[in-house]
Amino acid sequence: MTTTTRFTAWRLAALTLASAFVLGGCASTTPQAQLAAQAPELSTFQALVRQAGLDAALADQEVTIFAPTDDAFKDVPAATLDKLAKDPEQLRQVLNFHMVNGKVLAANVTSNTALDTLQGAKLNVSKAGDYLVVEEAMATRTDLSSGKATIHVVDRVLMPPKKK
Fold it and tell me: Distance between CA atoms of 18 and 20, rounded to whole angstroms?
């Protein structure tokens, strides 16, 4: 199986999960349905959150999420995606590196702000003019609201630092 074929198969599985997730919530105004309507480019991220079992926990707490777009996941090597698909704990670690407790609005970010992620590592957030920069990713949309979550859409998947 080629790298492209593996990624396509993995992405199809993620999108299938996302479709079930979104369609299951359409009858109500769940945070997931709200987010799906506001940011359809986050379907892969939403599917992975559900696959990792983080959706229920996130519904009950105020968090800020730096959510990668579907296109950002295309830039992740297929071997890395395969590894994450097979290791739920590692998947949770990667997803939790995209999340911090509390509400962080783009306007409140100052230069070189270090935030504690739910994964445990620091996440560097700063401003470049009017743009929000998260590690090496740029926020393409900021301050979306979904339930108790504040979401900033980013153009890269962030990987937590390797544990020593």
Answer: 5
Q: Are strands 137-146 and 122-128 parallel, antiparallel or unpaired?
A: unpaired
Q: Which class does domain 3-154 fall in?
A: mainly beta
Tell me the DSSP string of 2-61: -HHHHHHHHHHHHHHHHHHHHHHHTTTT-HHHHHHHH-GGGHHHHHHHHHTT-HHHHHTS
- DSSP annotation of 117 reads B
- Residue 92: the pLDDT is 96
Mean pLDDT per 10-residue segment, the chain (164 residues): 50 43 43 72 92 84 95 96 92 96 94 94 94 96 91 97 76
